[in-house]
């Protein structure tokens, strides 16, 4: 497919707005942490995941190191700066009591995996 030089953005826009024929979305209740990355967020994620203390300490040390890092310039890319405070770093299905039979499972969830 040949794309006109003056219309590459139009082609990209059309392509990215098409529905992905192999994709799907299942609407379920989720537990999401607000956007942003901080020591507090890392501690909260670790608590929610019930991680051992040594892993939390490892993550906090890695976060402190990451704060000192700069975006590499060797590739000479012209890309916008990433705003890490606009990203949510944790989302998981809300915890419920486990179903005792498939009759208790959300039909939308069953449909997703059938």
UniProtKB/TrEMBL annotation:
InterPro entries: Fe-S_cluster_assembly_SufBD, SUF_FeS_clus_asmbl_SufBD_sf. GO terms for biological process: iron-sulfur cluster assembly. It comes from termite gut metagenome. The lineage of its organism: unclassified sequences, metagenomes, organismal metagenomes. PANTHER family: FES CLUSTER ASSEMBLY PROTEIN SUF (PTHR30508), UPF0051 PROTEIN ABCI8, CHLOROPLASTIC-RELATED (PTHR30508:SF1). This is FeS cluster assembly protein SufB.
